[in-house]
Amino acid sequence: MWDNLGDITLGNLTALFIKSAPPGKHEDGDGLRMIKREGGGGQWVFRYTIYGRRRKMGLGGLKTLSLKDARDVASEYRTMVAKGKDPIEHRRKQRQDAMRNRPLLKDVALDAFESRKADLKGDGSAGRWYSPLEHHVLPKLGRMPVTEITQSDIREALMPIWHLKAATATKAANRLKIVLDHAAALGLDVDLQAVAKAKQLLGRQRHQVTSIPSMPWVDVPTFYASLHEPTITHLALRLLILTGLRSAPVRFARLDEIEGDIWTVPANNMKARVGDAEAFRVPLSDEALHVIKLVRPYERDGYLFPSVRKGVISDATMARLMERRGLEARPHGFRTSLRTWLADQTDAPHEVAEMVLAHVSDSKVVRIYRKTDFLDQRRPLMERWAKICTGQCP
């Protein structure tokens, strides 16, 4: 077992504690760990050392695996380790055997997900790629042989959300098409047109996708002035407004990302997939530097906007503040406010204005040959925007 677990005995957790445990990592002992997330969800993880290599594997979610079951599974894997068998490799082989002997949709879907992790943000750790399948397709079709799935089966699975949750349904259908393509690549005889035919049966979606509510840019100065308290939430909102960034780069902002008046946001905090994302340089206005100076006393573990407990503030923290004030607009909408101001009140070229918001407006080949992020052109624009926000410009 891991060296720092030697003083932990098995059976530290109880079923009662699991229900009320705060977010974080909680050790049951001998390699079994519970990871509790905000909102009550979480998962079981088994950590072990084999052949001098430290490894960890997910056992399942807290809602699907009880404490007793998690201990039983961990005990089985500890026995494997004692016999020199790697549980992760054992489970991988089981999945491969299952696909060869009974190519169920759930097995092929998981294999397709594993093969695409390198192209997903954080190796898909957030679960966003797999989630539409896991919640809306696999519960109904997961145990069916992938070769027997028809457009009628797909239609039945997606019908409950096709109009009610149009965006999610579309993602689920698109992911399923990728899974069927993956099955075909494995040599399985699947209907590659099943998803397209299911969409025809489902018909056109009635749900209209709406944009995130934004605030007219002329109203931004008044709202910005109301964020006068030196709290983490107020300061995070101010920095988000001033920079035009999405929530994640601001919430995960670190001191070591800022050098002088340039903030270099790492690629893994940008929206694009890891394979396409690049570190993004943000020119900081005098007001933005002032906000960073005000928030520095709150810094913990390098992060400028830590949460009360552990980690950084949640995605909903800033939105709740605006909601409590009765505002329709949401934090992400300030990107629209900034983009509208750029279009209405400046002569910034389209590609420069799009770069302010880190929008990918050209093909990857064009971006490679362009070799610029328009930092010098963006700098005066961000300074002007800061003066608008602080009421220094009409």
TrEMBL record:
SUPFAM superfamilies: DNA breaking-rejoining enzymes. Keywords: DNA integration, DNA recombination, DNA-binding. The keyword Translocase does not apply. PROSITE patterns: TYR_RECOMBINASE. It comes from the Bacteria. Pfam families: Arm-DNA-bind_3, Phage_int_M, Phage_integrase. One of its GO terms (molecular function) is DNA binding. CDD domains: INT_P4_C. Residues 208-382 form the Tyr recombinase domain. InterPro entries: DNA_brk_join_enz, Integrase-like_cat_sf, Integrase_catalytic, Integrase_DNA-bd_sf, Integrase_DNA_bind_dom, Integrase_recombinase_N, Phage_int_M, Phage_Integrase. Belongs to the 'phage' integrase family. This is Integrase arm-type DNA-binding domain-containing protein.
